[in-house]
Each structure stands twice: as C-alpha cells, then as structure tokens.
Amino acid sequence: MSSPPQDPSRRSAIAxxxxxxxxxxxxxxxxxxxxxxxxxxxxxxxxxxxxxxxxVATSLLxxxxxxxxxxxxxxxxxxxNTPAPDAxxxxxxxxxxxxxxxxLFLALVPTVGLVGSAAVAAAxxxxxxxxxxxxxxxxxxxxxxxxxxxxxTFFLPPTTRIFPWSPF
Length: 168
Prior knowledge:
The chain has one domain (8-154). The chain is an all-alpha fold and 168 residues long. Strands 1-2 form a two-stranded antiparallel sheet. The chain is 72% helix and 2% strand. The model has no long low-confidence stretch (mean pLDDT 76). Helix 1 (8-31) runs parallel beside helix 3 (87-128). It has helices spanning 8-31, 45-78, 87-128, 134-154; strands spanning 37-38, 41-42.
C-alpha cells in the first residue's frame, strides 16, 4: 500500500522552518557547553542559551503558521487563488535572513560591540521579514541596539564589550 502523494507546496512551506529548527537545536547544544552562571554571576553561556532558545521558539512558531497556511492551500487553489511558482523560495527568505542575522551578530560582536552587532542583526532580520522601507528598518535597528544596551548594562558583567571603544 502506497502513501498518498505529497503536496509540493506543503513541503516547501515547512522546509524553511524545519531547517531553522535544526539550526536552533544545534546552536542550543553548543550553547549548553558554556556555563550560564559562574559564582552567582552571569556566565558566558547565558546569552547563547537564550538566543538559541529564541531561534527554536521562532522556528516552531513559523512552522505552525506554515502548517496552517499549507492546510488552507487546497481551498485557495480550488477558489483559483494559486500562489506564484517561486513562492517556495520566497518562504525560505525569512529563515535565511534570521540565521544570517544570528551569524552576523556573532561575527560582529568582537569588532563593533554588543550594541552595534545587535542593531545590524535586527536590521537584517527586518529586511528578511519583508520590510523594505528605510524608516521601519532603522527603527528595528535602533530597537535592537537599545535592547542590547539595556541587557548589557543591567544584566551582563562589566567586562562585556558593549561598545567597540570599551576596554574589554
């Protein structure tokens, strides 16, 4: 007995969130190798653990939305509202942009500091989410930088490189 054929639009809709979920789980496994707390202080692994948990949560949310959207696709196709042929590639862009923003954040921290790298990562994530207007992208970057500044000031140890001109 053979299984029913898979709908290609459904497979392409869940491919991006599944790849992001696997990457988030891999990041989480790597983050667990660093201590979150050292002698009643925040350790080097806490931010990485929170970040990887956020990637996993985002991918699960994206996967659930994709599954609901794909389940409604046959009804839209019956009504004559079929997606464009390259819609599968467009669905991968948010996941690629999110992974790229995380990788860029990690790469930029040593040179531009926590605030600058968070601002750049937030801007890239906004562009990946479909925002193209400069004001909302700049607002996303400013919000990401402000959140990183608040986290760095109030929760991270004083040796954290918040700005590039910081001594550490």
